[in-house]
Design goal:
The complex is a heterodimer of chains A (272) and B (303). With 272 residues, chain A is mainly alpha-helical. Chain A has helices at 7-34, 51-56, 60-93, 99-107, 114-127, 134-159, 162-170, 175-186, 188-203, 220-230, 235-257, 260-271. Chain A has a single domain (59-271), classed as MetI-like (MetI-like fold, Orthogonal Bundle), CATH 1.10.3720.10. Chain A is built from twelve helices and no strands. The chains are: A mainly alpha (272), B mainly alpha (303).
C-alpha cells in the first residue's frame, strides 16, 4: 500500500503541514516585524527598515540583562553537570538504603510550579539578605536544572557498559582514572544533552527569576517581559531575530552531531 | 610493583574496593543532597511558614490563618481556581486533538530527511524564549494583525475579531507552546507499534475504525496520558503567556501570585503559591493512577 495514494494518509499529512505552519507562524512573524518601518503591529507592515536594530543597540539594559543571563546559565549548567553526574553515578552504580526515596527527593522540584518556587525563593533570599544577587538566581535556576541533569545522566549511565569499568579497575586503574577514561566517554551524549537542556532552561527562565531580580539588574527574558509590558515596538523583535538565529544554528548543529536515536531517548528522559 | 608481591597486594585492594562500594555513594551524593536541602527544601518550608506566619511584614509577626481564610472564603478566588483549571483542561484537550494525529503522521513519514525536518520544526520552537513566542502571537492575533487581515481580505468578517486580551488568545498561544510536550510522549509510543498488530486485526475482519479503537488507541494511551499530565500541569502553572495574552482581563492563579508579589503581599502570595502547588500535586497523583491503568490496558491489548 502506497501511503501517498491513500486519502486518509493525504488528510493526515495535510494536517501535519498545517500544524508545522502553526508552529512556525509566530516565530516567522517576529522575524518580519523586526524589519517593519513602524512601531505598531500592523499587517502587512507599510514599509521595511533596520531602525529597530539601531535602537536595539542603544538599549543598555538589554545588554546588561543578556550578560546576567549568560553568567547565570553557564554557572547553573556547570554545577548541574558536575553535581548531576556524581549523583547519577551514586544512584545508578550503588545499592543503598533509601535510594528510591532520594531519587524522588531529587526530582521533586520538577513538580513544583516554577512561579510558586519563585515566590519561595524570593522570601528565602530576603531572609538571607541575598535578594537581588546573581548568586540567589544561580541557586534558584539550579533547583530546576539539576533534576533534569540527574534524570538524563541516570538514563545514560544505565545504558553505559559497566563491565568495561570493572575491567579497567581489575587491570589496576584507580577509580578516578576509570571514570575519566572509561565512564566519561560513554556518557558524553548524556552530558551534552543535559548541559544543553540546563542551559536552555536557565536562559529562558522567567517565572523563577521574576521575583528575584532587582529593577536595574534583570535577566534577559525578564527584561524582555517588562519591556513588552511597557511598549510593544519591534525592538524586542529585532532582539528576537538574533536569539532565533542562534537557536536555529544550535538546533541544526545538535541534530547533525547527536545520533537521532540517542536524542530521542534522552529527550524522553528529559521530558519527564 | 614487584611480581613477588602481587598475591598479598590483592587482598588489601579488595577490601579497599569493598569499602568504596559500600560507602562510595556518600561523597558522590553530597553536593546534590546539600544543594537540594539547603535551597529547595528549606525554601518550601519557608513558603509554608510564610503562609501562616508572615514574618517579613511590618510589625511583630504572629501566627495567623488570615491569609488562608481570605483565600478559602472568598468566591472570587474560587473563581480564579476554576478559570485556571478550565484553561488547563481546554489546552490539554486541544493538545491531544492536534498532537495525536501529528505524532501519528510524523511516525508515518518514510523519508528520514523529511521526518528530521518535521522534528526540527516541531521542537525547535522550544529553543526560542517563551516571551518571544508569546510576542509573536500578540503580533499575529492583534486587531491589525495578520490573522484578522486575512479573515477580512477573504470577506469572512467585517470588523476585526478580538483574539488577544481574552481566553481565546491565551488558549491559542498555550497550545502552541505546549504542543511539543504532547507530541513527544505520543511519538515515543506510536514508534513502538508494530505493523503486524494492525495487520492481524485487519485479517480478523476489523475495519479501520475498529482497528484504531481496539488496537492502536489502547496501545498509545499511555503516551496520551503522560503527555496530558505534562501539558496540564505546565498550563496551570504558566505565567508569562497567560499574563501577556490575557492583558489583565483573564485572571488565573499565577497572575494572582504576580499581583500579590508586586503589592509585597508575601503572606497571601505564599498561600496562592501553595494552592497552585497542591493543585499540581493532586493532578499528578490522580493522573499517575491513570497512567498505571492505561499501561495495564495497553498490556491487555498487546496480549
Amino acid at each position: 500500500m502506497k501511503p501517498g495514494r491513500d486519502p486518509a494518509h493525504t488528510l493526515l499529512f495535510l494536517l501535519l503541514a498545517l500544524v508545522l505552519i502553526f508552529m512556525l507562524a509566530p516565530i516567522g512573524f517576529v522575524l518580519v516585524y523586526a524589519f517593519s518601518s513602524v512601531s505598531y503591529a500592523i499587517f502587512p507592515p507599510p514599509g521595511y527598515s533596520i531602525r529597530w536594530f539601531v535602537k536595539l543597540f542603544q538599549q543598555e539594559a538589554l545588554f546588561r540583562a543578556a550578560l546576567n543571563s549568560l553568567i547565570v546559565a553557564v554557572a547553573a549548567t556547570g554545577v548541574s553537570l558536575v553535581a548531576g553526574t556524581l549523583a547519577a553515578l551514586a544512584l545508578v552504580r550503588y545499592r543503598f538504603f533509601g535510594r528510591e526515596v532520594l531519587r524522588a527527593l531529587f526530582l521533586a522540584p520538577l513538580i513544583v510550579p516554577r512561579i510558586a518556587f519563585g515566590v519561595a525563593m524570593m522570601i528565602y533570599a530576603l531572609l538571607l539578605r541575598r535578594f537581588g544577587g546573581l548568586d540567589s538566581l544561580i541557586l534558584a535556576h539550579l533547583m530546576v536544572t539539576l533534576p533534569f541533569a540527574i534524570s538524563i545522566l541516570s538514563a545514560t549511565l544505565v545504558a553505559a557498559d559497566r563491565s568495561l569499568e570493572e575491567a579497567a579497575m581489575d587491570l589496576g586503574a584507580p577509580p578516578l582514572l576509570t571514570f575519566w577514561k572509561v565512564t566519561l566517554p560513554q556518557i558524553r551524549t548524556g552530558l551534552a544533552v543535559s548541559g544543553f537542556f540546563a542551559f536552555i532552561i536557565s536562559w529562558d527562565q522567567v517565572e523563577t527569576s521574576l521575583f528575584l531580580v532587582k529593577t536595574d539588574n534583570k535577566t534577559l527574558p525578564v527584561e524582555m517581559f517588562y519591556y513588552l509590558q511597557r511598549q510593544q515596538d519591534p525592538v524586542i523583535a529585532a532582539l528576537s531575530t538574533f536569539l532565533i538565529t542562534v537557536a536555529v544554528t544550535v538546533a541544526v548543529v545538535a541534530v547533525l552531531t547527536v545520533k537521532p536515536r540517542d536524542l530521542q531517548r534522552l529527550l524522553a528522559a528529559g521530558g519527564r | 610493583m614487584a611480581s613477588s608481591t602481587v598475591l598479598p597486594a590483592v587482598a588489601p585492594r579488595r577490601t579497599w574496593r569493598a569499602t568504596a562500594r559500600r560507602l562510595g555513594h556518600l561523597p558522590l551524593l553530597a553536593p546534590s543532597v546539600i544543594l537540594s536541602i539547603a535551597v529547595f527544601w528549606v525554601c518550601m518550608a519557608v513558603l509554608v511558614i510564610m503562609s501562616v506566619y508572615p514574618f517579613l511584614a511590618s510589625g511583630p509577626p504572629q501566627f495567623t490563618w488570615a491569609a488562608w481564610r481570605r483565600f478559602l472564603t472568598d468566591p472570587y478566588y474560587w473563581g480564579v481556581v476554576g478559570t485556571t483549571l478550565r484553561l488547563g483542561a481546554i489546552v490539554t484537550g486541544l493538545s491531544v486533538l492536534i498532537g495525536y494525529p501529528t505524532a501519528y503522521a510524523i511516525s508515518k513519514i518514510r523519508r528520514p530527511s523529511w521526518a528530521l525536518a518535521a522534528y526540527l520544526i516541531l521542537f525547535a520552537p522550544i529553543l526560542v524564549s517563551v516571551v518571544v513566542r508569546t510576542y509573536g502571537w500578540l503580533l499575529l492575533l492583534s486587531q491589525t494583525g495578520a490573522v484578522n487581515y486575512v479573515l477580512r481580505t477573504l470577506g469572512l468578517i467585517q470588523t476585526p475579531i478580538p483574539l488577544i486580551f481574552n481566553m481565546t488568545g491565551i488558549i491559542i498561544a498555550m497550545v502552541h507552546i505546549l504542543l511539543p510536550f504532547m507530541v513527544f510522549p505520543i511519538l515515543s509510543v506510536v514508534g513502538q507499534l508494530t505493523p503486524d498488530l494492525k495487520e492481524a486485526a485487519q485479517d480478523l475482519g476489523a475495519n479501520r475504525w475498529q482497528t484504531f479503537r481496539r488496537v492502536t488507541l489502547p496501545l498509545t494511551l499511555p503516551g496520551v496520558v503522560s503527555g496530558s499530565q505534562i501539558v496540564f500541569t505546565l498550563t496551570i502553572s504558566a505565567f508569562v503567556t497567560p499574563f501577556l495574552m490575557g492583558g489583565g482581563r483573564v485572571q488565573i492563579l499565577s497572575g494572582l501570585i504576580y499581583r500579590d508579589m508586586e503589592a509585597v503581599n508575601l503572606g497571601f502570595a505564599a498561600v496562592v503559591a501553595l494552592v497552585l502547588l497542591l493543585l499540581a500535586m493532586a493532578i499528578l497523583a490522580g493522573s499517575n493512577q491513570l497512567v498505571r491503568r492505561s499501561y495495564s490496558r495497553a498490556e491487555v491489548a498487546r496480549v
